[in-house]
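Sample 3 of the quickstart, ligand adenosine monophosphate:
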Amino acid sequence: MFGVNRTTNARPREFATATMANGPERKNSHMDFASLGLSEKVLKAVEATGYKEPTPIQAQAIPHVLERKDILGIAQTGTGKTASFVLPMLTILEKGRARTRMPRTLILEPTRELAAQVEEDFHRYGVNHKKLNVALLIGGVSFDEQNKRLDRGADVLIATPGRLLDHFERGRLLMTGVEILVIDEADRMLDMGFIPDIERISKLIPFTRQTLFFSATMPPEIQRLVDQFLQNPVSVEVSQRATPAATVTQKLVRSGSAAFEKRETLRGLIRSAENLNNAIVFCNRKRDVAIVARSLERHGFNAGALHGDMDQRARMAMLDSFKNGNLTILVASDVAARGLDLPAVSHVYNFDVPTHADDYVHRIGRTGRAGRTGEAFTIVTKPDGKYVSSIEKLIDRKLDWVDGDALPKEEESGGRRKRHADKDDRANKGDRADSSNRPRRDDRKKPAAVAAESEENPREERRSKRGQKPRENRKRERDDDDRTGFRDHVPAFLLRPVRAKHSSPT
Ligand code: AMP
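Result:
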């Protein structure tokens, strides 16, 4: 989703052009990693990853980090920005060693997933730095293991702000030895209400430190932080391209505005997809993420949810499952998905039209990466018109509509439809508790086609020749018969046989 300078180099299309805000633009078409000043050990590790040349942000930032200058990097994830601080940090950390409870460097990340991802990158790029201690301080996991890591002395501490301050308040941590502070995804920290924590942490670290600050956007609150905590920073800006990759087919689909109607439209879209390898379904609200994922699962799709209310273990398991291909459809919110290094996907579905046009570009940038083809569908209801217009304005083109009538239809009884409508009504009033966060126990890969309509299914054809009802319909009848209202989750005591009362003879 980032632009490339097509005339000057042949870099994969994800990587952006960079401009130096306080210096002339440096072209890095002939630049290689060896000319950036990185150590031999780091260069070997980079070679092992197979990277051919630095991305623009790496080429621009790394020499300045090595000169120990403060950096203001205006860049999103996907630009190679993590390596732009990890690689020079590894080089710098080769000299000196960590002392107990006194980390030498600190990286702040807004979410546990991002923190874990940066830790992974340290291990990947630090394969030749065997003695380097990296500690991850994130919520949702026990303090004991983290304490042990801190006691051993951490060269690199990667943390979310809340957990870091918890350790500090318990007296397990001294920040006076921190030489490099990295504040990553600052605008997301702002979204998540972490700015007071960041200010507090920044004040606990010596003023003489080097600060590397990254943010995709620069709202006034972020600019204020930069003015307060960075000293004469070198600014490196990676320009975001507002037009999505040309290899992505983008379509709009009209739907009724009730959530159950949107879910039906979504199923129709998935069922009619050709070559669906894996997909992300984006919802605007995290409550809907859980509901949509669960509904897809109930309809036989291999789907799972990723949202901010899930516990750490469940989020990681879900993400791993999607990355390794065991999970086909990931339903996610923007906040949960932003910044994550998710695999390239064949299909993106916007269950809701994003209210910020930027988010649209970001979402559909998950497909059609590196010249591959991808498909993006956006479900549009009547009230969404203004959001569609602002997207079309941003990407500077009109989007095509899919004929909603051409989608596979589902036959549903009026009763079931009414129940859905009632349920949606309740959910909208906020009285629905959802517990669909757990990854599926049976996480074998199921192609989307498994969920295809039964007419194409030879087994169902045989059933109908035998005069049997299709399985799907039998299930529906069962559902409609469900008088307990618990559907598949009837408590055991209700299933126990009721013993008839013997009336005593008079
Ligand atoms: P990031 O923006 O740090 O999340 O990186 C996005 C992706 O780009 C990651 O999957 C990295 O492995 C990859 N990457 C980072 N640097 C390079 C490079 N110089 N060449 C090719 N891929 C890279």
